[in-house]
Write a structure and sequence with these properties.
This protein is 75% helix and 0% strand. It is mainly α and 138 residues long.
């Protein structure tokens, strides 16, 4: 008899919870990166990728569309803690835009990870529902 692997627990996060989780973790990562690594954008980007993975895995099947939308917003929110652009709001915005432009590779990679995982999960949900409908109609 072939034993099935252990399944992950049911995804616990709603769409809002997934966005809040991702945003809170990236804000914390930004603060820790600033404190421990003197605002290393490479470290911040590397921390962003597993957060994207977990966000896409832990969101409920009905809210999967939230994951690829929430992760870039969370990336930008965390960057706000680390950017230096000068004094005032204008300087902070210039620093944020510069950091987003120079770190676009991390941003696109994390968004792609979340999008692919969410799409694969959504396709699996659709196939499972179609199979259940076929079983009940025959």
């Amino acid at each position: 008899m072939v034993q099935r692997g252990r399944r992950l627990p049911a995804p616990p996060l709603t769409g809002l919870g997934g966005g809040l989780f991702c945003g809170a973790v990236m804000l914390a990562a930004g603060f820790l990166d600033q404190l421990l690594f003197d605002s290393s954008l490479t470290v911040y980007g590397a921390l962003f990728l597993p957060v994207c993975l977990l966000t896409a895995l832990w969101v409920r099947p009905g809210d999967l569309v939230v994951a690829p939308v929430a992760v870039p917003i969370a990336f930008a929110a965390g960057l706000l803690t680390m950017t230096d652009g000068g004094e005032g709001l204008g300087g902070r915005l210039v620093g944020l835009v510069t950091a987003l432009a120079t770190q676009a590779g991390w941003l696109y990679s994390g968004t792609l990870i979340a999008g692919v995982i969410a799409t694969v999960r959504r396709v699996r949900v659709i196939r499972r529902r179609a199979a259940q409908r076929r079983r009940t109609t025959t």
